[in-house]
Amino acid sequence: MNVASFFSKSTKEALQNDPPGEWMPALPNECIRLSSGYPAPHLVPDEEIKQAVASLLKEEQDLPLHYLGSPKMEKLKEQIQERLATRGMHVGEDELLITAGACQAIDLIARILIDDETLVIVEAPTYMEALEIFQNYTSHFMSIPIDKDGLQTDLLEDLLAERKQKGLSLPRFLYTIPTFQNPTGTNMTEERRKHVLKLAAQYDFLILEDDAYGELHFEKHSTPLKAIDTDGRVLHVGSLSKVVAPGMRIGWVAAAPEFITAMAWFKKDLDHPFAQATMATYLESTDMKERLETLRSTYQAKCSVLLSALEQYMPTSASWYVPEGGYFVWLKVAVDTSELLAQAMEAGISFVPGRYFFLSQEDGTQYLRLSFSYANEKNIKEGIKRLGNLLEEVESSER
Amino acid sequence: MNVASFFSKSTKEALQNDPPGEWMPALPNECIRLSSGYPAPHLVPDEEIKQAVASLLKEEQDLPLHYLGSPKMEKLKEQIQERLATRGMHVGEDELLITAGACQAIDLIARILIDDETLVIVEAPTYMEALEIFQNYTSHFMSIPIDKDGLQTDLLEDLLAERKQKGLSLPRFLYTIPTFQNPTGTNMTEERRKHVLKLAAQYDFLILEDDAYGELHFEKHSTPLKAIDTDGRVLHVGSLSKVVAPGMRIGWVAAAPEFITAMAWFKKDLDHPFAQATMATYLESTDMKERLETLRSTYQAKCSVLLSALEQYMPTSASWYVPEGGYFVWLKVAVDTSELLAQAMEAGISFVPGRYFFLSQEDGTQYLRLSFSYANEKNIKEGIKRLGNLLEEVESSER
């Protein structure tokens, strides 16, 4: 029996991309993980989740363990609506879909919008999982570079104008992480936010705003694109992974009702009553405003430690953006970061090589992503020290 | 902005089917629910799940709340492999994918196998959610009727031979629920099981075996198709929804490694660490053999109550199959069951009208699905009494 002969056309095409699972090597336990975009272990509310489960099952018994019927689970939507409203996003019940994390939300958006001919705009670099998702549906991309102020909207405008003038197809949507971008940590300026919305209206495309890090600002907060979108063009994707716990798999899309209806049609894992009702119970008994203050000050302090260590230990050839929030610092170095990773792991540290974040992987050769969210302050400092030493060594051996 | 103009071709096509959400009306609390394919409330282990969460988070703290890294979560796969092995299905680690329930498993199989030209064989009647999933990918179906012995494989053979002779396209896979079928409760005979595997080899198609009810036999158990498949043609879908709790959303596919790799590629909700680790902890501390004995005897007793009530209260025009396991009894009556439902709900009972289970909905007009799993014995009896009275009334008014 020839297994491959049974695959659909789109499956055959998708499997021609990089083999699945070709990703970071497994990390030994003692490794200082500057690669992981995980929340800090001590900020994960395991005790509170335990209490939430106990209180939920005491109150509702078997209800959250069926397909439907948990009153608490029904509240999660309202709670998320309220959280969005505090940031200027007023969405109705029919404009919100709860998903199993942001990735499922991005996949559902791709499912309803992308044909094999669809042109998609992505940032360069961008979130690798989103790239993989889009590549399952199309091979047509416009890749627009990021600088310290986020997506370079002037370049985007030039390219759109050029395509229009030449009579080429125009993009159906832009995928952007405007606030504390993954992997660069950059924040799109207010001017550029307005500019990109103007371009979307002018060239008639949609915007998939990935806002996983939006609430984790250090000083001033940024306005989500969704909050200043008067045209219904923004499909806003959010998640509780970075502010509560990724293992709960709670995310959402906020968008025009027609989009929500179509996404619900294709969402075939059904709801997740136990996880959703547990999260609703947790949110009900948690002062999220206070929790967010704790998260912000903790991550700001950890980021400062990382930035100081970079100043102290990096060779002069290295450069980086200073983030205003989120989990990440994006580093440019003078060596090939994929080759560097093996040596780094021998030295007991990890990072993510830049190539994973680009459509054209070779564009990422000299970059790497550092995360300050997971490792503790002592290990962050020690990790950067080892990375700095390693870079000095490699550079001097190459001279 | 014209929202519909942004939809992909396949989305536009899928949305032309019945509008999403057009399904059973909401049921008032006091309604006797003979419609719900839910486990019996007192058999849902809410206390044990609470204890599993407490013990898991005590042992692993934050680990099951991250993306990866929970040792307990890793054990779930082994536990499912062991459970499959007790039923003659010996699958390797690379032949098993954990999914968010059986529906996600079916959707992933559809995702990798179905083009818009793909021909799919379904049973008539069959599980409506699976029909909806397949219809998102193709509009080409062969529909083969069920009788008291399950899928009529002779009819299938005739139709396949005819298509081959005429040079028509042949099907890529058969979707079947051989054991305690939803909605008919029928069990495919051992002869027909062998026959369908022979046909699959002869006409080179795959078999999607949906085995959600396979462990819930009353007397003798049946051999899963996967256990007698020597050719790698069976993609076996299972779930803990019917034997533990649907709200946990734990299911799987067991299939050849190439299929598993492709499905994992398209599975973009990531894993569900909290739910999966909780389930692994629950299974570790539960004697599932004993639990299954309790489930079997309880559901057998409830089924007996329903069958006795049918004998006692149904008009002579009604007929049904006697199930050997599972959750359902399939009833044929002399009236239109979609029209009957409104009156039934006024009488405080619910069932699922037959039309939902057929590709050609009109084929289901005179059928309805009764579930004996959820309502208690007293309510089952009372519910059937009311249904019988109602049928008598409607029949006599139509005379």
TrEMBL record, chains A, B:
The keyword Transferase applies. Pfam families: Aminotran_1_2 (PF00155). Residues 1-20 are annotated as: Disordered. SUPFAM superfamilies: PLP-dependent transferases. Its cofactor is pyridoxal 5'-phosphate. One of its GO terms (biological process) is alpha-amino acid metabolic process. InterPro entries: Aminotransferase_I/II_large (IPR004839), Class-I_PLP-dep_aminotransf (IPR050859), PyrdxlP-dep_Trfase (IPR015424), PyrdxlP-dep_Trfase_major (IPR015421), PyrdxlP-dep_Trfase_small (IPR015422). Residues 31-387 form the Aminotransferase class I/classII large domain. GO terms for molecular function: pyridoxal phosphate binding; transaminase activity. Keywords: Aminotransferase, Pyridoxal phosphate, Transferase. Belongs to the class-I pyridoxal-phosphate-dependent aminotransferase family. Homodimer. This is Aminotransferase. It comes from Halalkalibacter okhensis. The lineage of its organism: Bacteria, Bacillati, Bacillota, Bacilli, Bacillales.
